[in-house]
Design a protein that fits this description.
single chain; 2 domains; 74 residues
Amino acid sequence: ALLSQRQIKRGSHYRVRELQAAISEFIAVHNEQPKPFVWTKSADAMLNSIGRFASRTLAVQGTTNMSEINDSGD
């Protein structure tokens, strides 16, 4: 997302080489002080979000047990 926001914008680069150079420069600068990706939600919270998403978006016919999506595997 950072790369898209800061370097890859429609119309900001007119040549492929310019875009490649901008991406390479971004990577070099960003990697000078890298920061690890940190999850902000627990696995259970993510699974619950997926379950809610599936409930809203999937066409469910008959009875479907959505608890299988939220099941922690026990």
